[in-house]
Amino acid sequence: MNDDVPSPGEITADTPFTTDDDMYHQPPNDDPYWVETNWWSFNIPERHIGGWLHARFDVNRGVVTWRVFVWDPSGADLGRLAYYRTGVDQPMPEHPDLRDITFPGGGFSVKMVEPLMRYEIGYSDPDNGFAVAFEHRAVHPPRRFTPGEPPAMYSPHLDQLGHQVGELVLRGESITIDSYSIRDRTWGPRGGHHMRSRKPSYQRGEHRVLHPGGPRWREIERERGRGRIQYIFGHSGPNTGFLGFVRPQDGDAAGWSPLNHGWLLRDGRFERLDKTASRMRNFRDPRTGWSAHMEVDLTDLSGRSMTAEGFSVAHMCEGGRGSNALMRWEFDGEIGWGEDQDGWTRSHWTKLMNALRATRSQEA
């Protein structure tokens, strides 16, 4: 790394990323859970299509797991998705360069065009009539959030809005990509013991709620000690939109959950959210448990505010629990597109679904 880059203890939310952050980083130790990720998303609103390309590099193990998937209203599970393919624990070459790489085992490619700002992304599966190629043209330099707070407890994390321009080939049909969506990067320990809560109440098997009451499913949704977070975003273009990390476990009985990190984009100016004044209320489909409708109130640190309302139009359920939802948003008289990423552990999800499926009140 450059000598002028602050040590981790000196990094704040205002510390800029450097060109070194386009590359893989040297782990500080031999922790087998040291991971670097890179993620690219796009959408095609007219077809209600969402898409991901994601790679997790387990650096000290020397292997990468990559995934490419596209979803639309035709199906959410792996057997019905518009497209899904993954390469698990593929051996990485020595000293891989993330600025110009094709992930092994038939994975996607990343080529840096302009440091921190422009990238070419590509992938092809001719046997299945599928390909995707687009350029991510960043709207702004990548932004980081406060280290030591969820979700960046141990890891630097960057988010960046980009204009994705290119082409998707789905079942042999060529479809134009012209969207505004997000890429992100994270590096640091992930998984194993790093994901276990250290709270004594969690270790005792207790999952108390901060504000008891309200509908039973909402109480389950905000049980503490589960390590759950929702990631929502939506943009109508380069000048208007939002991104936020939701903390359901800090929510109230009426269903309002605070957003502890994120941005408000208005008139082309980004500003971090005021986490004391930004919140989201989610309404779930009782048949699937997935997010169906959201209300979001946003206020940034300069006092600007925005109200957004979103509806899910397509879902992708990779693990049989929560979903990645393509969201249609309305805010400031504009229509925006983005996602709701709703992650759960299986036991917690089962508990939520049991509550949503209940047909009679349980006796005390």
Short description:
Helix content is 6%, strand content 46%. It has three helices and 20 strands.
Description:
The chain is mainly beta and 364 residues long. It is built from 3 helices and 20 strands. Strands 1, 2, 3, 4, 5, 6, 7, 8, 9, 10 and 11 form an 11-stranded antiparallel sheet that branches. A hairpin with a 4-residue loop joins strand 1 (34-44) and strand 2 (49-58). The relative contact order is 0.12.
Low-pLDDT residue intervals, each spanning 5 or more residues: 1-8
- Please give the radius of gyration in angstroms: 20 Å
Q: Classify the fold: give the CATH topology of the largest domain.
A: AttH-like fold
**CATH level-four homologous superfamily name of the largest domain:** AttH-like domain
State the domain count: 2
Report the portion of residues in β strands.
over 45%
Number of strands: 20
* Helix/strand order: EEEEEEEEEEEHHEEEEEEEEEH
Shape: globular
* Count of helix runs: 3
| CATH domain class of the largest domain | Mainly Beta
CATH arch. level architecture of the largest domain: Beta Barrel
Main beta sheet: strand number and arrangement? 11 strands, antiparallel
Mean pLDDT: 92
Which structural class matches the secondary elements?
A: mainly beta
Distance between the termini: 60 Å
